């Protein structure tokens, strides 16, 4: 598929500090790409360059077919940007905010009002559109912020850590809204500190470190790069770790790994039944036994060496 976001060899320096150094990215139309990396890896700088908010020092970047350096106005006409803080006025109502944004996008009053009402309905805010934003929950404010970014019907949407500071319920509300956007054909570049968020939402993930992409793929591909599934035993008595490790080694034929009250070993999914059968014949004090896939947290740690 033709990429709507394309970057090749992007470079950006701040004095002696290098924020981007050979940054490459390709995001096909109608997909969501998650941009992950430790603090200071260059994620926000990349978004600022791609959204024309910052000029790069080298390399090439195109968004929606337009060069971000030589055609910034055309890029801006094709994109929406949602930053880390909601950019809405708390005194105005949700509906008034959207109408205001529509007018700033040079829409006529009637058209701005029509789109505002459509977006309030689309994001589940129709019943609260007349209330001041100061009365909104965090999740409602972020959904309103997303709605505001869509008033000009952008082909590409940049989301820079849109759920930072939200409680789990509010985060799920934003996730549902983002899934709807992608389902309707919007191309999204998402930066996030929540690996679960990227796992839930992203079609593909690019892992960034020291200003360049060091790994990319679907969430399943990245997790699969760490190897096989594992059978994990959670014990209630640390003195039983040795016996539990011996049991897993006997059934799976793999070298177990122990950590506090957990012991695990690489295994085929079909081996879980054998492990449960063996456990039933022992008196091992276990709390749980499960088949576990590698997580994005483990991929993050393996590739960056940075603790979460």
From TrEMBL:
GO terms for molecular function: ATP binding; ATP hydrolysis activity. GO terms for cellular component: plasma membrane. It is found in: Cell membrane. Belongs to the ABC transporter superfamily. Drug exporter-1 (DrugE1) (TC 3.A.1.105) family. One of its GO terms (biological process) is response to antibiotic. Its main location: membrane. PROSITE patterns: ABC_TRANSPORTER_1, ABC_TRANSPORTER_2. It comes from Amycolatopsis tolypomycina. It is a peripheral membrane protein. SUPFAM superfamilies: P-loop containing nucleoside triphosphate hydrolases. Keywords: Antibiotic resistance, ATP-binding, Cell membrane, Membrane, Nucleotide-binding, Translocase, Transport. The keyword Transport applies. Residues 5-235 form the ABC transporter domain. Pfam families: ABC_tran. NCBIfam families: drrA. This is ABC-2 type transport system ATP-binding protein.
């Amino acid at each position: 598929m033709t990429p709507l976001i394309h970057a090749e060899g992007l470079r950006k320096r701040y004095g002696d500090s290098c924020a981007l150094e050979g940054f490459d990215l390709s995001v096909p139309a109608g997909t969501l790409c998650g941009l992950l990396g430790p603090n200071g890896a260059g994620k926000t700088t990349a978004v600022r360059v791609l959204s024309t908010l910052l000029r790069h020092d080298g390399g090439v970047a195109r968004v929606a077919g337009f060069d971000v350096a030589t055609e910034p106005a055309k890029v801006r006409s094709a994109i929406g940007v949602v930053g880390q803080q909601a950019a809405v006025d708390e005194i105005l109502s949700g509906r008034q905010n959207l109408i205001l944004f529509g007018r700033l996008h040079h829409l006529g009053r009637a058209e701005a009002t029509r789109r505002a009402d459509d977006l309030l309905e689309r994001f589940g805010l129709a019943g609260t559109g007349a209330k001041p934003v100061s009365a909104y929950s965090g999740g409602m404010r972020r959904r309103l912020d997303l709605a505001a970014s869509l008033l000009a019907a952008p082909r590409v949407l940049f989301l820079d850590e849109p759920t930072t500071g939200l409680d789990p319920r509010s985060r799920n509300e934003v996730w549902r809204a983002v899934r709807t956007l992608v389902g309707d054909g919007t191309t999204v570049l998402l930066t996030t500190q929540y690996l679960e968020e990227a796992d839930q939402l992203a079609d593909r993930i690019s892992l960034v470190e020291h200003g360049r992409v060091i790994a990319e793929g679907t969430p399943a591909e990245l997790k699969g790069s760490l190897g096989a599934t594992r059978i994990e035993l959670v014990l209630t008595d640390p003195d039983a770790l040795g016996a539990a490790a011996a049991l897993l080694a006997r059934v799976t034929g793999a070298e177990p790994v122990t950590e506090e009250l957990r012991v695990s070993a690489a295994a085929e999914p079909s081996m879980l039944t054998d492990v449960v059968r063996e456990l039933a014949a022992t008196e091992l004090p276990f709390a749980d036994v499960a088949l576990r896939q590698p997580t994005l947290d483990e991929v993050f740690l393996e590739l960056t060496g940075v603790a979460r």
